[in-house]
Structures are given as structure tokens and as C-alpha cells.
Amino acid sequence: MALPPGLPVRRAALRLLDAVLRRGETLEQAEAGALGDVRKAPDRALARAIAGETLRWLTDLDALIDSATKQRLPEDAKARMVLRLMLAQTLRLETPPHAVIATGLALLEGGPRRLAHGVFSALDKLGAKLPEMPTLPERVVARWGAEKAAAIAPGLAFPPELDLALRDTAETATRAVQMGGVSLAPGHIRLPRGAAVESLADFKEGAWWVQDLAASLPARLLGPGEGRHALDLCAAPGGKTMQLAAAGWKVTALDSSKRRLELLKDNLKRTGLKASPVRADALTWEPKHRFDAILIDAPCTATGTCRRHPDVLHRIGKGQVAEMVELQRALAAKAAEWLNPGGVLVYAVCSLEAEEGEEQAAWIDAELNLTPKAITAEELPAGLAPTPEGWLRTHPGMLSEQGGLDGFFVGRWVK
Fold it and tell me: Per the confidence metrics, is the pTM higher than 0.90?
């Protein structure tokens, strides 16, 4: 019997989902193994979209499945995994039910096809719907608190749009019109999701690079370089390095990953911007000179990227947070030693965890020989404001009418 068209894509999506939920891998880590037999770019993108939407709405999909079964299916039961994918396709990707059934049941060869068919058909006949915004996993709500989780949820309903950072901020208004986008800050353009990056105008010429609006804020807070020396700690793949170079800083770009540092070099070559890449472990490296500014975009749990990487909602727990905290403090202590008197340190994480953000800033205040330099509203895009402490906290629910932004924490100090 001929296999239904599209089955390899659904198998790949199932492998992606299994890798995240059972092995704790990121979607990116899982792709090499999961997408091995899916060759065409559109098919690979569809497999990612099915898995991504399933993870984005997992709690609500499970609630629908549980409402249609007499006995609750185990969390890792294959029937539950397949039903999650089937419902995500019909409710989020608008795949016709007959196509969902054909490919979904084929994933359960030798398994409970009748059960899956019955549950899916019952929910389809009832006109089952998902809520307007995703329900976050219980363990995430327990960590963040109900109020914070409720504020973040609206920003997770859809994958993010495409943000670009411009090499020349003076071109912002002109390029926004030319590219059919909107700008939320100087040097920023937002385009509709789904835009093919390499086919956009002036990609090869290096006029811009992809960078979420929130990710661009830490480097903005260092201001113009005017030929002074800056260190971008944990720099690859280079978005913040390019920002600093474009702002007139002489940038040393440090990273320990050879592969990621090659990406940084490629990005510098494409944009024509200058920096000095260095491959080294920041905890053992010793600079040849001190710096007037240091930007630490510290390794973190990356829970702030959950609108583009929904797997983090299901992988990250307290153990991973604690591991990151120790590393972040060690990096901040090193950076404080490397600053010139009067030099500025910006510490940032793309995390929504207070332990990696607010609590780290309080530790820097108490333990390092640095003076807080408050972030001001005038330095931020419209709609964002500093905290009473002079820090910046963003999350995906902010600027939701304009498409939202990633979750970041940023603090700034002077030596």
C-alpha cells in the first residue's frame, strides 16, 4: 500500500517533539537527526512548524486530548504524541482533517490507531478550539508566578516577525519604506514573518543582519564608540559585535566556539564591518589592554526566546538556572577587572528568570567595584521603560500590538 504524501515530514516532526520532551534537546540540536531524510527546504520548514506549534500550545492540546479520553494517556505515550501533532496541524496550521488523519494514523503503525482516530474525530466534530493565547506549563507558572505568566502569554500565541538591524541607522526610514516594514527604533526594521532572509534587498551587500529588537538594546546602551575600545564577551554569532562596530567602537569579539566564531567572521565580511575576533575561554583569557566598555551577553537558559524557541518552556528547570548563575557571576567578575576607570559594563541575558537577571544585578551591586548607571526611558524604544532600579526588563508580552519582542534583562554599571 502506498504511503500517504507528507508522511516523512510528520515523522520528522514526531522525532523533533520526542527529542525535546523525552531527551531534553533543543529543537536546533534535534534537527540533524530528525530531519535527515527530509531534503526539500519547504518540507523541513513544515516539520519545524508542526513541532514548534505543538510545543507552543502543548498544555492546551493536552487538555483537549484529556477531555476526549476516558483514561488519561501517559505523557510519553506515542498516541498522545501523535494526537498532539494532529491537533496542532488542524487547529494552528489549518491542515485539512482528512490529510491530518491520513498522515497521523500512519505514524501509529502497529499501535492504537483506532483510539487516535476516535479522539481526533470526536474533537473535530465538536469544533474543538484553542484559547486566544497559550496556557503556559505548570512548572513555568510556578517559577514565574501567575501574574508574570499571564503577562507573557499573549506574546507567545504566534511565532515572531522578522527583525533586522541596519548597518547605517540614517537609512532607517528609507529602508523601512523600501522593504515594506515598520521601524520601532533607529536602525531597526520589522518585516512580516515568513520573509526569506537571503532574498531580501541588500542581503549580500551587508546592509543589515537579523536581530530581535530586544537583543539590540544592550549594545545601544553603550552609545557611540568614537574610536574607543570595547569588548564583546561571548560575542558569536556577532549581532552585538556588528552593532558596536557600526557605532564606532574598536571591538574585540571573544567567543570560545570555533563554529560560532566562523559565523561571526562571515557576518563581518558580509557587512564590511571591522572587529578583532578572538577564540578563547573568557574565564582563563587575559586581555592585552583594558577596555572602555564591556558587553556581556551572558550564556543563560534563554527562556526569553520562548516565542521563537518554544522548546525552552518544556526543557528548562531550576537545575539549569543554577548552573548558569555561577558562570554569569564569574564572567561579570572578570569583566569588572578588565574595565578602564570610567569604563562601562553592560550585563544582559535573554532569560526571563529572576536568578539570571534581577538577582545577578543585585549581586553585581553588592560584590563588584562598580557603580550602577541607570538606564533611562529616553534610551529605549517607545513603549518600554526602565525598572525603578534603573535596569531594563523585557518579556514577550510587551509591545504585543507591534509584534512583541524577546525577553531580556539588562543592567549597566560604570567603574
Answer: yes
